[in-house]
Structure formats: C-alpha cells, structure tokens
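Fold Annotation — chain and its backbone

Fields — amino acid sequence, structure tokens

___
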Amino acid sequence: MPKLLVVIPAFNEETNIVPVVENLIENYPQFDYVVVNDGSRDHTAAICREHGYRLIDLPINLGLAGAFQTGLRYAAENGYDCALQFDADGQHLPQFIQPMLDEIEEGADIVIGSRFVNVKKPRTLRMVGSYLISWAIRLTTGKAICDPTSGMRMFNRRMLEEFSTNLNYGPEPDTISYLIKNGAVVKELQVEMGERMSGSSYLNFARSVEYMIKMGLSILFIQWFRKRDTQTPYLERSL
C-alpha cells in the first residue's frame, strides 16, 4: 500500500482537534498524520503537544495554502508516496481515505472527495459559486468537476512534490484547473461530509462571494499565464 500522510491544517481548532486526531489514531492507525498549526491564537498547539500529536507549529498564520504546502513539504522530505488534505473541524470523514487511496493506486494524480458525483448539487445561493467554478473549469479544460470547492483532496507523489516546492500552488480549484490543463489525471470519488463539530468557519457570506469571484477569474484568465517546473528534480529544487 502506498505510504500516505494525512495533512491536517488547523487554525483555532482547539475544540475540534482532539476528536479528529483521536479518530484517526484509534480507527485508522495504518495512516500517518501531521497537524499543521497555522499560527492559531487559541490553544490548538498546546493541546496537540499535551496529547503527543505529531505537530508542525507555524509561528504565524500563513493561510490554508501556506499551511498545506508546509505539510506537503514534510511529506515529500519524509518519503511519503501521497498526501491527503484533511479538515481539522470534523467535516471530512476518514472512512473515505482508503477508497481515495485506491484511486491513486489506479493511476490518478489527484483524487477529490466529492459530495456531488452521485448526488445532485442543490440549487441554493451557497452553491451558485460552485456551479460557476465547475463551469469555468469545464470551459477551460473540457473536464467536468462536480465538486471543485471540496477541501478533501489526495495528491500522489508527483503532485505533492510540485505543491511543496512551487510558489502559487494553493490547494484551490484554480490550481486544480491549471494542473488538468497540464495533463494531471484528476478523479472524483463520492463521499459524505460531516458537520463542523463546533465553532464557525472563517468563510462567511461575504468572504465566500469574494472567494468564488476570485477563483472564477483566476481559472478563466490568470491560469493561462502560469509556468510549471516539472523538469527539475525535487531534491535539487529543495536545496
């Protein structure tokens, strides 16, 4: 079985981090994990240390992209074959990790845990942005992605090396679109999502609208001008 690292970016998740990590430790011990504390202002890091969790403690808040890239850099430097982006709030369910890993073994570069492969996407105001991003990806790549905003994504070794060493490689729909255009094999797997255990997401309505507009414009226009380094060996780039 490929060696997998579950990367758990965490920002102010003191009330959620213990049940999320304990579930992995107790029920899915075959998968390694690392918590990347993204400069939390609460007790997230202290709780992880108290419980002896594997922890990367960032001194400042880098945002999701920076925290996740840190986790992928750790995975690449420690010989992992693939890595999974896994939320610290309890929404991502670990029973879907193995089926996603099976897709990686079948040749996928990226596997998205999707809510809408076999389930119809609701026509709600919240989903308008998801529809628009899916449309933008299909228009620019010819590939239909049903759930482009899902944060449960698994990357094979080739992808985690690119994400961990290149700038502007955030785990976002515009980068997924860019990689599809450059030949990456992206698959979706139907999953279920849980509810946030406690606390509230930083993505309020205004931020969600801003995010959707930013992603749409990036996919339609900016991604055409990105350059990709796939020739330089990872170890050489990381020196």
